[in-house]
Fold these 3 entries.
Entry 1:
Amino acid sequence: MLKANVETFLGCDCPADEARTVLFGAPFDSTTSFRPGTRFGPSAIRHESFGVETYSPYQDRDLEDAHVLDVGDLELCFGSAEKALGDIEAQTEEILDAGKRPFLLGGEHLVTLGAMRAVAGRYPDLHIIHLDAHADLRDDYLGANLSHACVIRRCWDIVGDGRIFQFGIRSGERAEFAWGRDHVTTQKFNLEGLGKTVEALAGKPVYFTLDLDVLDPSVFPGTGTPEAGGISFEALRTAITLICSKLNIVACDVNELAPTLDPSGVSTAVACKVVREMLLAFPDY
Amino acid sequence: MLKANVETFLGCDCPADEARTVLFGAPFDSTTSFRPGTRFGPSAIRHESFGVETYSPYQDRDLEDAHVLDVGDLELCFGSAEKALGDIEAQTEEILDAGKRPFLLGGEHLVTLGAMRAVAGRYPDLHIIHLDAHADLRDDYLGANLSHACVIRRCWDIVGDGRIFQFGIRSGERAEFAWGRDHVTTQKFNLEGLGKTVEALAGKPVYFTLDLDVLDPSVFPGTGTPEAGGISFEALRTAITLICSKLNIVACDVNELAPTLDPSGVSTAVACKVVREMLLAFPDY
Amino acid sequence: MLKANVETFLGCDCPADEARTVLFGAPFDSTTSFRPGTRFGPSAIRHESFGVETYSPYQDRDLEDAHVLDVGDLELCFGSAEKALGDIEAQTEEILDAGKRPFLLGGEHLVTLGAMRAVAGRYPDLHIIHLDAHADLRDDYLGANLSHACVIRRCWDIVGDGRIFQFGIRSGERAEFAWGRDHVTTQKFNLEGLGKTVEALAGKPVYFTLDLDVLDPSVFPGTGTPEAGGISFEALRTAITLICSKLNIVACDVNELAPTLDPSGVSTAVACKVVREMLLAFPDY
Amino acid sequence: MLKANVETFLGCDCPADEARTVLFGAPFDSTTSFRPGTRFGPSAIRHESFGVETYSPYQDRDLEDAHVLDVGDLELCFGSAEKALGDIEAQTEEILDAGKRPFLLGGEHLVTLGAMRAVAGRYPDLHIIHLDAHADLRDDYLGANLSHACVIRRCWDIVGDGRIFQFGIRSGERAEFAWGRDHVTTQKFNLEGLGKTVEALAGKPVYFTLDLDVLDPSVFPGTGTPEAGGISFEALRTAITLICSKLNIVACDVNELAPTLDPSGVSTAVACKVVREMLLAFPDY
Amino acid sequence: MLKANVETFLGCDCPADEARTVLFGAPFDSTTSFRPGTRFGPSAIRHESFGVETYSPYQDRDLEDAHVLDVGDLELCFGSAEKALGDIEAQTEEILDAGKRPFLLGGEHLVTLGAMRAVAGRYPDLHIIHLDAHADLRDDYLGANLSHACVIRRCWDIVGDGRIFQFGIRSGERAEFAWGRDHVTTQKFNLEGLGKTVEALAGKPVYFTLDLDVLDPSVFPGTGTPEAGGISFEALRTAITLICSKLNIVACDVNELAPTLDPSGVSTAVACKVVREMLLAFPDY
Amino acid sequence: MLKANVETFLGCDCPADEARTVLFGAPFDSTTSFRPGTRFGPSAIRHESFGVETYSPYQDRDLEDAHVLDVGDLELCFGSAEKALGDIEAQTEEILDAGKRPFLLGGEHLVTLGAMRAVAGRYPDLHIIHLDAHADLRDDYLGANLSHACVIRRCWDIVGDGRIFQFGIRSGERAEFAWGRDHVTTQKFNLEGLGKTVEALAGKPVYFTLDLDVLDPSVFPGTGTPEAGGISFEALRTAITLICSKLNIVACDVNELAPTLDPSGVSTAVACKVVREMLLAFPDY
């Protein structure tokens, strides 16, 4: 039977009514100040996912058994962060309305704000777990307050003090770190204390935002602003399994893959494996 | 409404029952002897087609008005040319059975043989127009007779003398040129005589096979075996418009784009434009 | 004597009070819809200019004799086209105030609008010569009216009918071409008629905007949206020499080099040579 | 004296009658399902070996003292795995007939099967040590049973249960792991237990097959299917020294380097060092 | 105010009379025997430094408070090592004359010799700390004694026995290691003993030369001769902080970044961070 | 029979005593001022020659009938132009002593001088045909008189006025062009007048030096200093056939391919075809 070509992330073509998690891409990088290219992240993850297996020997689970639907990339307006965020928020709303978990693939980290706006409206008690190399706590950047460098600060505008838990942070302005001390919980350089945070947030609604540059650039070179001194793949794999299996993740995102900066393809392969392990770790996979 | 991601060549998502031409990809390059990578050609053409416009100022026609469906890539067995050709033949049969024109995107040139087998079975009077840098007339290559270097010879096995018209040929073994003189019509180096050939074949069923390396490597660097001294884009554009608008093209293919050898992306962009112009040139577009 | 490192385009370090032309860069590509990277254009042109000679055997003139100052790149806000355009306009104003000719290096084509706003304020009779592959006449693009794809339409908002002369255009929506017929003069595909246009505009103030993708991608692959079928380097060289030597060019720009898409460096080299030839062609060089 | 150019792996031009180990390359990757390019592995290793020293500070031995001859690459038929394996088997036979140790450079992992067939015929008690990221235990892959993804299963067809010892495996189908539990010894993720295996196999004839993707992609990005979570260079170096110095290695191979996916060249450099350390570790070096 | 474009390493535009450290580049790689490209190192470090922050969360110091001036790259004669070294020596002299600390950015490692000649003339008791993958102790290389492979041997010609302390060395000829045992202190493979060396050299004038290939290629792929088995970024970061903060560093250099071999840009990013951390660690920063 | 691997340019493994032309490589680029990499030219040409056919449909001749031996690359000292030139001269002498025609593959253009010194000593009446984008007539460059930018001037030192005929020149200092007018015959931009020059030099001993950057960068991007506005492949092919078939070419060279700047491989493919056509054009092929 002849029909239009369907392309989804590996094994994520579950019928809409059975899906529990919905993947969608936000190919946006207009506020990226240094090296753009994360706009190509979601389609690269989708396209290259066929290089990994559906089965995880770590979790002994298989995407063939999972309930995930990949609805593809949004068509976003370049040059207007506000419009793009509006479209991301609307898509997130639609997924939440359908009773499913939104799983957003960026794009630059600013896309998180679009999803967060939708999610925070439904979960007044929302908490955020944030893995990243960069604090992203600036109030504005070169005159813009909708910038990748400000995204967690904008999330704080919504959720307020004591709700944001950062790990792996190793880069930022002096002022960001100073401001952060009073408003968010920041673990510099590594993931120490993550276990305790997971215990403390048990049962609460959690938005999990993963900037892949938390990984060391040796593991994940394909990103706009690589920061030496990051965590290993094994550390990240253990952390995401813990977070996604033990917490009530109401929405999540994975972002900052820039395939154009990844000529060997290893970063895209890492991103695919991270997405697979997250999808398989959800209790309702 | 949430549904699985659909990706087609630009504007080619016509409902199946209205489609007149059906695009499909054969991501196969196992017999490529020099530099592989054409397996990535069809998906690159599909993916990058969004960088060209649907409208052609050359023909004043628009893909938005065309009746084309892109059904995606076959999943082919690597390492067995015979199995891969069987799958291509079957897909071509299905499209012909549906009363539509098959438009195959390669892959290496050998994929033509799969489509040809299906088409030749229905059109005993089939003729072939072949644009290429290479004669592809070897009887075998390193012991294999199913090889990209033998594909037109294999087509000749089916259609016989006097049915094959080659243009742009500028590379081959001494023996290929010698053999060719008795069995096919070969225009070396350029497209001279194409107009007369088109006149002569008027009304007859024609399979049109386009190896993009007929273009000069300055225009189309992204191919496994670049051969300096090829034709210009404008020469090719004029030729394909002539062939597709004036002849009874019952099936066709475009092949030998190797995106991995095209870091600037210009070759993929050329391939997209070539496909667009061919699709728009068909009288029944 | 120890002093901070100065870097300018080859030979363009004339003292400010002697300079007649002032080069500046606008490293902006936030509205680029397909493949970003032109933000790196101005610094690549500056940095790689040392690969060309100061002397032009075409014009028998030497940059060592020219009166040009390169003041470097603006620091622009990413993610807000309006803010970026404001900064470009301000810089252009400053150069005009000093009685010098602004020469802007993009960046994506939208940057032209910033410079145009400043120039048009001073020259009510301003005309525009526009060399490009793309018409850039959309009224909006994906919801944004400040987009690279709309830039000439925005210029038309300022100067009105009969003032814009386009050459080399070979891509656009059907609607753009239709709209253009009533409002601008468009030469499709090539530069025919340029000589007459130059004669007709003799003595009038002219803004010259050059999108380098007017060149064929074989000559200039390093750009976001390559369009096969463009003009040759020799055609462009002759045209820019004519335009810059015969007309009253009150400001100009050269844009759309994306060095990240130019791994061999040939596109940057072409851009450097184009800038050199333009600088040397001005009667008051 | 003028003579035809000789190129061998660094320092491996020992006269044939004195050689104890014979290097040869099998530039084959036709069954590679994801990203081809390992066909260029052997020549890259040979060509880039001049970037490493002949002396190993780890073992305090020098290739200048070793007895190794590099006879170059086979010319293999692309598109027919069976023919290619036959040629590899024949070359291995010839080396064994000459009383020397075959050392095969791939190519994709399937090439191992050609060498194994020759070796197993002479050593009925043959055991296999297999370092890899992938289990390679499928019975067939997309309809082919001669596929890189099936190579260890095909070796098992020859040697049977209890003879194959896998280490570092971190990717495969669910079914492969299940089958493997009954037929081979698999150490997942790392090299634990290698010391005991080496003790247990003391004195027995061993074929050592090394798929370089057992290394973490940070160390070895240049391979078709990178799998995050692999072993470090130091872990591999220690292991190969142990295996080659303590066991009776009757033949061995190193495969899956894809230089086209290694733009910085680090993977080729790793491969060269691995080959050097293996060659120097043999007791009869 | 219009003035010629100034470009310096991030935040290093301190007025000359206030500067305590002076950065300068030596873009030279003529004696590189394997893969050239380090000539582009200094400008890449300068240009890409805007991707890192001025603030170090490791040291809680900020380049905005530092007293550093970047005077740019020397224009060196290619093809004559002696002339190039003379120019480097002269620049170093000028900086020393001004009472400032020279901080040289290479280029290949041979550039160290130019700076060393100037420094050794002023500090008869000079010691050298040398971090590198390669011993660089050859007396000559392919007939040249001014070669990157001989640079530490040439330094030894000046300072003599017992003054040079090498760490991380994992590559060299057998003869180099043998010679080194009698003349320099070499720690193979890692940085063990660095703490004791720093204690022993307290108060003495020290030249610190850092060949970035001491890092593992996974961390720093962008160098001419990558050597697997190197140290981690964290090990290097700790070491340079110790060396620069505890010792009397009278001059230093960082070399062997080859940006052309670093398509993802991670190596340049590492180099920028290393330079930042060194600049901030000096007691008089 | 096991023997060390032999690698030659396609089909050029003629026994030494039967060879009429001897190919050898000079992998040297130490004086290259802009972008190095031509050192990899000769081995790339040799290695990639297997992508072209032995048969030329242009000349209807086949390398299988030719008498050519490829003796491989010299091992040259980097960092000393004088030593490298000495080795090239010695190799050229040896070939001339054997009564064969030296055919040198560069490398940067300076290598010509080594061969020229040997040849000029035997042919007092030697003339030079020089195809290039650059005049190469500087007396010194950045203080060095042995530089790629001076090579034809150095040849003039040997042969004197009226013996050198340049074609295609489109770049140089003002002073070079001025000097050249009195001492050499320079055809700017194209090959006009080549036919007459060939007639005039009939029977005289001629050294033919071909800098491949005479080609337009669209045809030949892989070179250190690309200069837009060059000649087409067809123009070059015709010219080299004329020169090599009609003149008494006593030695020749082809240089300035930089494979590292040629990611698509088209430039190497062009160089291979140029070498093949030259070898087949010699009357005594």
Entry 2:
Amino acid sequence: MEAEKDHSNTGIVGRIWLRLKSAIGNSITGVSTVVRDVIKVGKDDPRRAVHSFKVGLALTLVSLIYYYQPLYTNFGATAMWAVMTVVVVFEFSVGATLSKGLNRGLATLLAGALGVGAHHLACLSGKIGEPILLSFFVFLQAVATTFMRFFPEIKARYDYGMLIFILTFSLVSVSGYRYDEILTMAHRRFSTIFIGGATCVIISIVVCPVWAGEDLHNLIALNMEKLGSFLEGFGDEFFRTSADTDWDTAEKRKCLRGYKSVLGSKSAEETLANFARWEPSHGEFRFRHPWKQYLELGALTRECAYRIEALDGYLNVNVQVPAVAREKIEGACREVSSEAAKALKEMAVSVRTMTRQAALADTDHLLVDCHGAVKDLKALLKASQWKETDLLAAVPLFTVTSLLIDVVECTEKIAESVQELSSLANFREVDPTSSPEKPAPLAGRKTKASKPDVECPHPHVVVPVHDMTLENGRASYPAE
Amino acid sequence: MEAEKDHSNTGIVGRIWLRLKSAIGNSITGVSTVVRDVIKVGKDDPRRAVHSFKVGLALTLVSLIYYYQPLYTNFGATAMWAVMTVVVVFEFSVGATLSKGLNRGLATLLAGALGVGAHHLACLSGKIGEPILLSFFVFLQAVATTFMRFFPEIKARYDYGMLIFILTFSLVSVSGYRYDEILTMAHRRFSTIFIGGATCVIISIVVCPVWAGEDLHNLIALNMEKLGSFLEGFGDEFFRTSADTDWDTAEKRKCLRGYKSVLGSKSAEETLANFARWEPSHGEFRFRHPWKQYLELGALTRECAYRIEALDGYLNVNVQVPAVAREKIEGACREVSSEAAKALKEMAVSVRTMTRQAALADTDHLLVDCHGAVKDLKALLKASQWKETDLLAAVPLFTVTSLLIDVVECTEKIAESVQELSSLANFREVDPTSSPEKPAPLAGRKTKASKPDVECPHPHVVVPVHDMTLENGRASYPAE
């Protein structure tokens, strides 16, 4: 009996202890998961942590208006507009911050003036007519401005300004019904918004600036590099013998598939280009840098990526290419693929470093090896040595060949676009004195410029997973 | 002399008249351009005009707080928060409005409470310590919350709430330094925001609601239909004789290329799905409708579109297919293409109308004709009748064949996904009593359901350019 009681006692204590232990364990696991996530998000792009501190700094600075008596006397409760402006306007990149700040400032100025006008007009119609007329004005401008927000050109650049226009006009004109000092109010609203906006813009430019233009520039170069990495590894992967282990294959494929992000990078590129247009001259980028050309280059890269996606389909399926056909064509296919890869990677370096090799002045020269390889491949197909081959089994091989030739065509278009960009953006000309005939190996410059974060075990495939540019493009610049 | 003066006089009057005329002409042209644009934007999606009126209505209703004395006595100047909320929260779709309204409301409640707490804590540290401690709190929460906004899961659903959290916490805690009635302020802020948010939500649900879920549903079906339209016309276009005029070709191609929008519809789909999750049960859509499955179906459709993009490349190039090879394979290729088109269009109708034919219960049945066609094509390739053919010239033909087979494979995957969707979303079963063996022709139901806005002159190609769904998805739901 006693033993049982003792047991049940230990049982209760034990159970409580167990629960406590599991609760502590759970919370430790929870906390460690959060910590791991935080470290991951911060490590993916350290600029995020810096941005958070910048926002904190701007907010603290602006809230000084409340604490410092002379300033507070001036602005009173409207000081909160400054705080509000900082929270809403401060964006990840300089371009986004400038775009929102200018939109907000100009819209406030314009709508404030119109609101004061509307108020005075409404005042003329007497005590009963005033609210009716004011309501009518507010309704009318809200309908008109909301509708204007659907125009694609306005939506792209001035959407936030439109929102603030509706807001300020409504506030100023309607508040006028209760306050007589409406001019003071409009004036204070504008000044506080100006203070908040200026604080954001200055801090975002002065403290570790994040330039949307630079992100776009790097994204475009990175995307070309990713296509190059796929093509570099494609030959090995398509013609691989079964000696490789499955793990190797899976790992390699994952590395090859870096190009997948290119397929969906359109909206990120457009957003970045939109913000880049607002940015002042910085580094090697002038105020009117040819951002449009980057978009064109991006579109061509994406077109190439679609072809590569079709090629990738032939890695998935376990294609049983007859050995005879394979042997005939393998060398030429590998050659085309790796030459296209080389061209793409060289162009990526050229864009990233904003240089062009004198020897690569015309696109033909850049792709000369590529064209040679395609010619060899076509000659192989023409030869009449295919008669004994099982055609059905060889079809995937022909398709891959044909798609590779398509990819080379896309690469040509990309090369032309890079050419145009290099002349529009005045890329520095670099003369490789060592070997004037053939372009010097770019490996040294490349490692300096591209900084790949992850190196694949595959000797041929280096996929820099410096992807936050893309993610930021899509995620960190909402049009608030 | 007089004649000359007279002439110069007429000259001045004439010139003024000419300038005036050209100015009037210019402004008339300008106005007519604007009017045309307005009509176009409104016609593209009449819901835009309705949305504008809804915003005007909500704003006018909320501004009544200012005019109606009893209400104004209650809220005072904080009434402007209600106006502000309406401007910022009212979005195009119910889901977006609900998402922003709930985010704003909950974040205000939470941050208000924390702000009051921070204020009381800071008060304990005396007159000098208070601003220092307050600044520290504001800085800390701004840094932490801004950083949290970079987490992808938070970004997707609660980004706006995070923004409002920073805003409200800063406002409430900092204002506390100047006002003693901080609780009243926090309370008023919450009430006015609640009034504004509720007005938006109610109007957006009651007056001609725009459901993001429905838009997503239609977009997914439309995308499948577009792929179907391409495949339907592909056979004619690829194997066309040179008898067609160039104009015809250009026009047809434009119609065929409706599928291009599918390539970039990922972000629109994700945005719509994100908003759809917030929407209550409406029409045939339950609260927990399987929106994730739509995203999966959309991804598969896009994968198919990538293959089709590669196919489209073979329409661009002036491929000189040898007549012998062509004749052999043309029939089978056309068959595969049109069977895949039929399957895609039938699935599109099935999704759009949320029905499934009893006869189509398993995917194999739906694609049975398709598989037959592929088999025929493969048999043709296997035959040894190709020995005399110039292989190089026939390579494009083989590639098209191979890509068509790929497309059929993608279609199979799409069919499986549609199948899964139909069971998850409980599609109504329709039993075609007329012919239980073969599915009844869906033409009648299709015209009712799909409402194509533009009919191409090509008898085979019907491309409904009801594209505003996509545009709205990307453009009208910014995460403000």
Entry 3:
Amino acid sequence: MERIFSVPLKGGNYTDVYFADDMKQVNALVEGNSFAVADENSASYLPECVPSVVLPSGEKEKNWNSVDKILSAALVRGLARDSLFIGVGGGVILDMTAFASSVYMRGARLMLLPTTLLAMVDATLGGKTGMDYGGGKNLVGTFYPAESVIIYPGTLRTLSDKEFRCGMGEVVKHSFLSSGTDLSDFLSDNLEKVQQKDEESLREMIRLSLAVKIEYITKDPEEKKGIRGALNLGHTFGHALEALRGFSLSHGEAVAWGTVQALRAGKAMGITPSDFADDGISLIKRMGFDCDYTIPEEEFAAYCNAIGKDKKKRDGVVKFVLMEGQGKPVLTPIPENIVKAVVCH
Amino acid sequence: MERIFSVPLKGGNYTDVYFADDMKQVNALVEGNSFAVADENSASYLPECVPSVVLPSGEKEKNWNSVDKILSAALVRGLARDSLFIGVGGGVILDMTAFASSVYMRGARLMLLPTTLLAMVDATLGGKTGMDYGGGKNLVGTFYPAESVIIYPGTLRTLSDKEFRCGMGEVVKHSFLSSGTDLSDFLSDNLEKVQQKDEESLREMIRLSLAVKIEYITKDPEEKKGIRGALNLGHTFGHALEALRGFSLSHGEAVAWGTVQALRAGKAMGITPSDFADDGISLIKRMGFDCDYTIPEEEFAAYCNAIGKDKKKRDGVVKFVLMEGQGKPVLTPIPENIVKAVVCH
């Protein structure tokens, strides 16, 4: 097994990220006094011989009811503060397992095994945990980094094309945010091999994508300096669409759509260079996303209301991440007429 | 208003502790974008002109249902991540408000206004938040220190004798744990003035008691080094009694009773000097606690089971805090026959 990153956390701890070659290597990592959580889709990747709870799948299950099931199962099994919670699945399961482990006896240990591309490049690093609340995404949660993240790319073989594409939405977001062009160059040259799930290409893309995320989160672990906020590129537009559509949309599709809106808004406001915006939008389209979806005008008020519930609101003003160019995010409010122009037309 | 402590936290932040002379000083502290939480007993101390939610009183309300009410009220009022949660009340309200603020959008700001002696000397420092879960006390929670703690001793004038005594249970615990004898000497000399609620004596006692707590928590902010565990003197015995009695007992009464059991067990095991144990027990009795309560033998199995659910369990073994003498706590398992000998006889 190869350790690809050791991400420094405050207090002198680390999140260690590994590539596993097969499930045997995953099983070898698990110790006594562990407890695993999966959903119906990821249950086949549960480590052997570990007590576990399997939840129903889907974003609509990301609520207290599910977190409660995790906590009560842990309690029944007699887990202590030094026991290990193991989350096995996509972002929903990982976020909830991490949230449960962060509040169980004020903090148990945590290992994450992402089984979707989106989770591999997004949900496992940075310590964001949470559940949906009161109609808003991730409105309740904590910052609680895992002590280890095990990426077994073999789990991607059984992933649906739709789910795979969702992960690509985050990867392309990282390619814009990266200070260098390694990831964008890699994507331009290798998109087909990646889409055919060539394992070597996948590993390289995951590694490059994680490197960008690590660059941002280590500078701003708890989103207090405005640096890490850049990782929310596409999320303010995207989350509001998800809220409006009752989570019928996948997170990756929403973020890809939101990133397109952010590029279009930035271009309209003279912040994003036209070339950069157009190249970005065409790369997102090449990945197979529906970027032309528009909000019907009669729903625009409800859409704005959903934007107003965004966690990123400070001093009462919602700020969006826009791009001044490669690796140059800025946080800025957008006039409502421009929001309307990009999402409704 | 007098700032009496500025407690360093990891990451360069501080919890500032103030003495307020009246409610005017408290009101002057509150800023826009705040939201206060109280229960029926503490509602009269809510700051003016701040939106608030008032919950039913009592330990049995310390559950997700109440935390949910706090979170949903905050959401309805449009609170953002940089808004201020203000907890006003005893330990139950402060723990739940702090827990809610710690998970609201992954962490809002937090101010605590304790209105009971127990909360003033115990619940406001150290960042422990939580709610009861699955029959166990504080099994779900976080570490999330407040940015400010406002102690207005005037609130103690309306406190019942029983509630006041509960706070004294924690104070006497701190007097044993202190490396010096300032607090024990003060208590021996001034117990009557304190019990008459003489304000100058109360301030001095609260200040000395907080100094002991600060000594322990700054050495071990997240209870990972076994130092802070000493603050649990009396808690393992006491929590199990509370669990057995369905929380009909107050926390301070349970801790005082538990401290007596710990002194008796330490004496029986040859760990605690007889003089120290006897003097300690008689000081606790002087404060008016029922120290002679015994667990009926037929309930001993259930009592042991409640001990087994204790958060302080590590590697499957429950460790108790016993005293080797003034300011010398040790963490050790206790043989079951000794537990039985002290709690059943």
